[in-house]
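Sample A.
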Amino acid sequence: MDVYERLQEAIRHLKEYEIIQGRIESAQEMAQKAGTDLLDLEKQMRLEGKDLERLDNNYLVNIWHHFRGTFDQERQKEELEYLAAKLRYEQAIYTLESWKRQVSHLEQELAGLPDPKPEYLLALKAKEDYLLKNQGPEAQYIFDLGEEMAGLETQIQEVEEAITAGREASEQLKEAEKSWSSAQNWGALDILGGGMLVTAVKHSRINDGHKRLKLAQDSLNRFQRELQDVQKLDKVDNINISIAADFLLDGFLFDIIVQSQISKAMERTRNTCNQVDSAVNELKQLQNGMQKRCAKLKTEKIKAIENYGL
């Protein structure tokens, strides 16, 4: 391996190491935020639970609503509010655990890699010594071309990882939308008096939608992380790419309990999916531009090597 290849390889390992370190920091920040959100949601759930308990156990309030004929209506309202708060709390637990798992996985991945800094410094010194012995614009030009190519190849891989994560998130969101659509259809039958079986199937589809959303949020978290990596790449800060959006699912989607909310859930899920698809398409355009630039550099480098010393 010559000095060019050695330094290019050392730079690639160093960037990979630094990328994982950055991912750990981002995941730790998200886990900390998720922990704070969890505490707030737990307080809200407890308050809603106390409101429901107060309605059931407070004699005067109980008598008042029975006298007005509003007890069943008021209890259903309080129960729905409690169930919605409970769903948000359970989703927050899942989100926090998901970020903790990501931190643990990334830390294990980093621990399995050798520190690339010493080899990078040695390779850099070897390159410096070589250039001092072989002064000339051609040698420097060939080296610069190879260095830029190595950087671009790393960036192309980063963009590819973001594209893959985006596609996975999009698929999960589409599956969630299918569940909402099925729940809506069964709900229509339920309203017409479909009976207990129809009601059970409708709620089963709603539960399927919630499960799909949990999987989608995991995929979206990964997509967000990959997008952050892309935004840190060199020479992409002037690209008009709409990937700065925060792909966190609306808390409303985890509150779906009654029929009237399902159509809104479908619309919001679809909008998030469209947003992800749009970002993936822009990433493809970005990657295509990088690949064309890399191919051009490769051609220039081959010609420069062929003509070197002639």
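Sample B.
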Amino acid sequence: MSRFFVVFSLLAILAPGCSSDDNTAEDLKNACAGLLACSEAFDSMSQCVETTEALNDFDMVSHSYLLTVMGNQHMALLQNMACIAEAGTDCDAVLACMNDGEARVDCSQINTFGSRICSGDKLVGCNDIGRNHQWIETTVDCAEMGLSCIEIDFDGLGGIMPTCGQGMAASTADGLVVECQGDVAQIQMRDGNLQFDCGFYNGDCVAGDFLLYEGLAFCEGKGPECDSNTFADRCDGSTHVWCQAGKEGGMECSQMGQTCTGSGDNVVCGYDACTPLVYQDNCSDGVITYCSAEGEVDLDCKAHGFTGCEPYGQRGARCFP
């Protein structure tokens, strides 16, 4: 697995505690149903439920580096799950929950990386995730995660990158300057401070200067040496093993209540009964079947007040108002 690809692939199978200790499995089910009925914030019910469950268990403070490439909608759902679940079939109310109480459709695209800005310690995004491809505004409270909203200056490299992080640095680094506190990388990205816990992925933090496009080169696997160009990912019990910066590293899937499944290019963390990342959600007579920690689960859209369900995207199905 390439070092650059790891940053993005991790978002598909996880993400660590932000808030939401009072959220229930039923809240999550209802919130994902309502959000997908009103937007295209996730690719499927399976992805929405799994990603949000993982985020709810994850320590985002020590993984703030991931937030630089994570969509605002992921954290906005987690922080406002009960509100969205209660909104039900009212799309204006659903989108208001995602945006600090104000539904904004057809917002103006923001000329920054990720189309986001900081408003105090709130990260405000405008992205084309509307049900009919409208630009929808969403708000994430960085302070709720124990972070600050920062605007990393990429002057000469494409502009500003607003994100949630550990604050601003006194000077600007050309790429990534990494210091280590145990397995946790203390990252200076240009003039912003971020963290990444290499130990969570069976890796050692490596101090030094790194180029932006090198991804997780500062996390070196704890296992034997390997060649990422020829290495075939594999399962070792419940551990997904990949080649990380020249040594075998990977993820212990049980950290997220999952196990390792598949082989070769299809190795992923999933549940015993099904794997959300590749699961084909089904719509039949108003009922969606999707993959969750409980296995294959049915969602009766009509019983939840929706008109019915419809196929959605390549692997999804969703209720419609």
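B remarks: Residues 203 and 221 are 4 Å apart (CA to CA). The first helix runs from residue 3 to 13.
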